[in-house]
Amino acid sequence: MLPNRMNLKRTTEEQLKKLKGYTGVTPNISARIAFFRSIESDFRYQGQEAKLDGSLVLDKYTWLGETSDVIELVLKMYYPDLDTKEYQQAWAAHVEDGIASLRNYRNLQGFSRSL
Question: Strand, coil or helix: what is 106?
Fold first, then answer.
């Protein structure tokens, strides 16, 4: 369903990298957290295609880890009619939405309290 190699928008990627600098949480872990924060907030992908121009191109398992099956099932449940490219767009949109609530943490203690 999701492609084997994925990336995000450059701005989202920069926010993930800044968060890593402040908290030490790697971009792939914070992207997973951001995705689920977005799902919990009832954000829904509206089909708007974004330019996924980030330089951090990772394989699906690195981005999603052990949550890959759950993430793909959630995407399939919310968006049953998308194709592979659109699923990547939806995933990236959810990460972008979710990182907005996490990007301002300046230390691991504050970050972990927000979870």
Answer: coil
DSSP conformation class of 67: G
How far, in Å, CA of 39 to CA of 20, rounded? 22
Looking at 1-115, list the stretches that DSSP marks H as alpha helix, in order from N- to C-terminal side. 10-23, 27-40, 60-64, 68-78, 84-99, 108-114
| Class of the CATH domain delimited by 5-114 | mainly alpha
d(CA 84, CA 89) in angstroms, rounded, equals 9
Domain locations in the chain as residue ranges: 5-114
Instruction: Give Cα 10 distance to the centre of its chain.
Output: 12
Q: What pLDDT, in 10s, does the model give residues 45-69? A: 999 899 999 999 999 999 999 999 9
Global confidence as pTM: 0.92
- The DSSP line for 40-63 is HTT----S-------S--EEHHHH
